[in-house]
């Protein structure tokens, strides 16, 4: 498999600011120490040679960072800082911005070299409000260089999500299914986020697939790569060239149509007509695309594709899209099993036909889609329903996430951290037992209560903090998380909870 592509390469620009009644040298000195700390990380950072004291300085620093290909910026208050020029820079920088400030180092500086940046952050935030500017301000924005370096590292992940989303194109193939109306969310909010949407017919996808047929050498190479990924034990070796042809078709379509965008994801109609014309299910190819950093959502779920991509950007690891699918019978759970802080009621199985990439599976193999086989082939010998990647999901930390539009075009989201348990789910598909503390009430009052669909994005790290900040910076106000038993959800019956 290839490395993760389709992901922004981040370069952070850091600019110091200084109010004219404070010595600019104080900011320069403190910025130098901060850069020394950042040099201990893997961050790609450029420090502006300009300390912003005036509006002209702000424009000069802006030009320098843009000329150095910085796609995110950190504004560092080495002292109180000039709020006008500071926020003017933030307003005109073409990417996400973080603001932080210097703490006083020791009692020796208090006599004459105090920076008062704790105070300056207040005026800066007020001016951000006047300009209606979103900016990332950490929970503890005033700190010593070693402390701030950790926060800048967090910001890189947050900024990566923002940059990826705002330069994204979603390719849709086929009408969104009538039987999955939850996937039929309005696309206006996608445009509001800066995302391009290109909706196409299933016939466009079939045409692209047919046009790829002549690339025999390339098909053979991809099919061989598939065989290697499957440990040379694929039970359907005759199917691999067809799947390779489909993978090539998707990649070529993306290259030919990405246009002014930098990154892309797909949301494809994958059944029931697909199998009769293509001769397979697309699940395994979808899994490979996700493994390379190009999520392909099932059932034309555009917001599912976006959610999966945001999880990828936050974690720098492939993500997947799963149905929040079924309850877990008692006899599946061994006695004394560790539920990772969840209760039995908080467990569920995350499932999909076979779209999760091999690096996110404990073990996997190519199979056929049982439900479609019953529907399309009367449960007989599988042919057109072959091509899933099935097995147990990789156990470990997990984050469930979805960004969704309501029918009236309001964006809403949920984020829930938990674990995928190392237990046999005893079922088919790409599937695993998910444990999220306080999930039972979250399921009732957020997923059901706020009309979220059956698909959730799943990442294989805990990245809730990054996604919360990134989603907030994107302008989403309704971000939902599991609440402890001491807190009520809106509309929750207190007599039932506290009985």
Architecture overview:
By secondary structure, the protein is of the alpha/beta class. The chain folds into two domains: 12-165, Rossmann fold (3-Layer(aba) Sandwich); 167-497, no CATH class. The chain contains 16 helices and 18 strands. It has helices at 24-38, 55-67, 83-92, 117-130, 145-166, 188-192, 202-211, 216-229, 240-257, 273-278, 283-292, 302-315, 370-376, 439-448, 464-473, 494-497; strands at residues 12-17, 45-47, 72-77, 97-102, 142-143, 168-173, 196-200, 263-268, 296-297, 320-326, 347-352, 361-368, 386-393, 396-405, 411-420, 430-435, 455-459, 478-480. The strands form three sheets. The protein has a six-stranded antiparallel beta barrel with strand order 10-11-16-15-14-17. Helix 3 (83-92) crosses helix 4 and helix 8 packs across helix 9. The N and C termini lie far apart (54 Å). The relative contact order is 0.11.
Oligomeric status: single chain
Average of per-residue pLDDT values: 94
DSSP summary, beta strand count: 18
Number of helices: 16
Radius of gyration: 25 Å
- Uncertain segments of ≥5 residues (pLDDT<50)? none
Biggest sheet: strands side by side, in what order?
Answer: 10-11-16-15-14-17
Number of domains: 2
């Amino acid at each position: 498999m290839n490395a993760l592509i389709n992901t922004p390469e981040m370069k952070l620009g850091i600019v110091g600011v200084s109010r004219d009644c404070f010595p600019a040298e104080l900011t320069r000195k403190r910025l130098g120490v901060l850069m020394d700390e950042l040099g201990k990380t893997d961050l790609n950072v450029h420090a502006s040679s300009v300390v912003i004291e005036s509006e002209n300085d702000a424009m000069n620093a802006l030009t320098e960072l843009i000329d150095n290909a910085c796609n995110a910026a950190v504004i560092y208050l080495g002292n109180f800082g000039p709020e006008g020029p500071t926020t003017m820079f933030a307003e005109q920088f073409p990417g996400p911005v973080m603001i932080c400030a210097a703490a006083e180092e020791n009692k020796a500086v208090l006599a004459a070299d105090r920076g008062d940046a704790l105070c300056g952050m207040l005026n800066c935030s007020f001016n951000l409000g006047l300009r209606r500017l979103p900016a990332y301000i950490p929970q503890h924005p005033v700190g010593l260089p070693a402390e701030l370096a950790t926060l800048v590292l967090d910001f890189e992940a947050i900024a990566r999500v923002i940059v990826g989303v705002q330069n994204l194109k979603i390719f849709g193939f086929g009408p969104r299914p009538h039987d999955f109306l939850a996937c039929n969310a309005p696309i206006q909010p996608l445009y509001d986020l800066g995302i391009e949407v290109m909706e196409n017919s299933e016939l466009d996808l079939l045409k692209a697939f047919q046009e790829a047929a002549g690339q025999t050498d390339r098909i053979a190479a991809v099919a061989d790569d598939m065989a290697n990924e499957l440990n040379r034990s694929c039970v359907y070796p005759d199917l691999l060239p067809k799947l390779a042809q489909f993978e090539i078709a998707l990649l070529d379509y993306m290259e030919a149509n990405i246009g002014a965008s930098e990154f892309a994801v797909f949301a494809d109609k994958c059944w029931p007509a697909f199998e009769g014309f293509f001769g397979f299910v697309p699940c395994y190819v979808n899994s490979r695309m996700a493994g390379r950093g190009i999520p392909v959502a099932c059932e034309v779920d555009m917001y599912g594709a976006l959610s999966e991509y945001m999880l990828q950007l936050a974690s720098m690891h492939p993500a997947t899209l799963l149905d929040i699918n079924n309850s877990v019978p008692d006899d599946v759970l061994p006695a004394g099993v560790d539920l990772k802080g969840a209760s039995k009621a908080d467990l569920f199985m995350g499932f999909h036909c076979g779209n999760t990439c091999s690096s996110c599976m404990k073990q996997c193999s190519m199979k056929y889609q049982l439900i479609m086989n019953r529907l399309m082939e009367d449960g007989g010998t599988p042919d057109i329903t072959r091509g899933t990647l099935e097995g147990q999901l990789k156990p470990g930390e997990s984050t469930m996430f979805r960004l969704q539009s309501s029918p009236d075009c309001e964006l809403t989201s949920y984020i829930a951290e938990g674990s995928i348990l190392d237990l046999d789910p005893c079922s088919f598909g790409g599937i695993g037992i998910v444990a999220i503390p306080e999930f039972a009430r979250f399921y009732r009052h957020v997923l059901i209560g706020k009309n979220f669909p059956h698909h959730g994005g799943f990442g294989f790290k805990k990245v809730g903090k990054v996604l919360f900040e990134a989603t907030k910076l994107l302008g989403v106000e309704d971000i939902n998380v599991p609440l402890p038993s001491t807190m009520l959800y809106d509309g929750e019956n207190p007599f039932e909870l506290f009985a």
